[in-house]
Amino acid sequence: MTLNHYLVLSAALFAIGVFGALTRRNVIGVLMSVELMFNAANINLAAFNRFLHPEGLAGQAVVLFVITVAAAEVVVGLALILAIYRDVQTIHAEDFNLMKG
Amino acid sequence: MTAFIFYVFAATVLVSALCVVLLRNVLHSALFLGLALAGVAGIFASLSADFLFAAQILIYVGGIAVLILFVVLLAARSSELRARQVNQQWLAGAVVCGLILYGLCRYLGRFGRPAAAGPAHPTTLGLGRLLLGDQAIPFELVSLILMAALAGAVLFSKPEKSE
Q: Which tens digit of pLDDT belongs to each residue from B90-143?
């Protein structure tokens, strides 16, 4: 397996994530697509670490930080979604228009 | 053998990611998200990143996917299960994604030379040394972020006081 295989896989996963984040109506679906994009970046970091700098582990350390920050982001995002859902009784993004002028 | 394992995991990741994005039922999307994250854990294992494999399973599959599943069960209504799940800009979105994929793949050619992947070593000891040595300050700052996220989640999910 070469580095290129992993990079192509990561690019495809990232594109799928971008498509989901752009087109899902459901806010939870958007959040899931963002998670897919995080994972694409993580695959890239681990693959570069393995193939270009096998003597160090800095890439894998960055992946650990990304995973931790993503967990924090998901927790706050889901709490926000639940709070908004209690208020407007929907989770479709186009209905969140309270601040529309 | 390595190639076979890689292709199995890559196919798992890509197919379940497509299911996450395209399926109508949000509950199925959340379940496929767990499968996609587990596939990414397999990719980490094939990159000989053993600690990342464990962390991915523990945090992503065991934590984040289950949390998203809970919120789907709390906030979804049965009438929405058959509603349209993509907005009206899906064609423009697909074009943008195709352009991004094309641009990325064009520049991936410069990594085409077969990079020598040396023998794999266990990474847990090295990662621990790195996190508590060179990167001790980011490591501590991340705990601050987790604390803030905890406080923020409690604050946002608290029911509002009636005035």
A: 899 999 999 999 999 888 877 766 666 677 788 889 999 999 998 999 999 999
Helix axes B124-132, B136-157, angle to 10 degrees: 90
> Integer distance in angstroms from the first to the last C-alpha of chain B?
66
Half-sphere exposure for B130 (CA within 13 Å, toward CB) = 16
CB proximity B16 to A under 8 Å: no
DSSP B149: H
Separation of CA A97 from chain center: 24
Cβ–Cβ of B49/A93 closer than 8 Å?
no
Chain B residue closest to A36 (CA)? B17
Cβ–Cβ contact B73 with A under 8 A: no
Task: With beta carbons less than 8 A apart as the criterion, state whether B88 and A96 touch.
Answer: no
Number of H helices, E strands in chain B: 7, 0
Say whether A28 and B37 touch across the interface (CB within 8 A). Answer: no
Q: Mutating which of A7, A23, A42 best tests the B interface, going by the most B Cβ atoms within 10 A?
A: A23
Sign of CA dihedral B127, B133, B139, B140: positive
What is the DSSP code (8-state) at residue B160? Answer: P
Structure tokens at B123: 């990474």
pLDDT band at A73 (very low <50, low <70, confident <90, very high): very high
ipTM of the complex, rounded to two decimals: 0.91
Tell me the whole-structure pTM to 2 decimals.
Answer: 0.91
What residues pair up with A24 in beta bridges, in sequence order?
A: B86
